[in-house]
Design brief:
The protein is of the alpha/beta class and about 200 residues long. It is built from five helices and nine strands; from the N terminus they run βββαβαβαβββαβα. The protein has helices spanning about 35-50, 70-85, 95-100, 140-145, 160-170; strands spanning about 5-10, 15-20, 25-30, 60-65, 90-95, 110-115, 120-125, 130-140, 150-155. The strands form two sheets. It has a five-stranded mixed beta sheet, with helices on both faces. The chain has a four-stranded mixed beta sheet with strand order 8-7-6-9. A hairpin with a 2-residue loop joins strand 2 (about 15-20) and strand 3 (about 25-30). Helix 1 packs across helix 2 (about 70-85). The longest helix has 18 residues, at about 70-85.
Length: about 200
């Protein structure tokens, strides 16, 4: 086996894994809004086992980086980075909006995901994995207005995990770090009221 890649996606309420051995992809997909942390490694073991692959055979890991469920992203990223570190292999982090664009054959595509609060995660692509500008959080109505006439439209957060694996097999890890891409700022704000001022040395 010259190339063995494990792809992980936990950004949506689904556990998705793909094992790409050279050009052959095998996938494991389970609907799962909760419990991904407990299930992810047994599921990886199952996927590897049915393909006769050991952890030491892996040559690369891929993982979606969001936006998506905060908890889900942490689970997937932690698993991917932990495996990469333990095995000494590269980890490719693929932004979820870009990963979703891989499913389209249209020349122009808009990815528009519900971000709640009447907002949307939005990004335009000129083709699969060819972004036009950066991902944004926009009011839902504005995001809908920005979809070009005749463009493809993706509104499902469910990535094609096999397509993700094939993309990550040739992507440069330096250009795709495995770091969470939340896009929207965190809701939690630092507490200023009770902060103790530092005294200069």
């Amino acid at each position: 086996m010259s190339s063995v890649l494990l792809a992980i996606d936990t950004a949506a309420p689904r556990l998705q894994l793909a094992l790409l051995v050279d050009d052959h992809a095998d996938t494991l997909v389970e609907e799962m809004a909760q419990g991904q942390a407990e299930r992810i490694f047994p599921a990886i073991d199952e996927l590897l086992g049915r393909n006769g692959v050991a952890y030491k055979d892996l040559t690369r890991i891929a993982v979606t980086t969001g936006p998506g469920s905060f908890t889900g992203l942490r689970i997937g990223l932690s698993a991917a980075r932990g495996l990469g570190l333990a095995l000494g292999i590269p980890v490719v982090g693929v932004p979820s909006l870009l990963a979703l664009s891989l499913a389209t054959r249209c020349e122009a595509t808009a990815v528009l995901l519900d971000a709640r609060r009447e907002e949307a995660y939005f990004q335009l692509f000129s083709g699969p994995a060819l972004p036009i500008g950066e991902p944004q959080v926009l009011p839902m109505d504005e995001a809908r207005r920005r979809v070009p006439a005749g463009a493809g439209l993706i509104t499902s957060p469910l990535v094609d995990i096999a397509a993700l694996a094939r993309f990550a097999a040739t992507a440069d890890p330096k250009g795709y770090p495995p770091e969470a891409a939340y896009i929207r700022d965190a809701d939690a704000k630092p507490q200023e009221k009770f902060r103790v001022a530092r005294v200069g040395q």
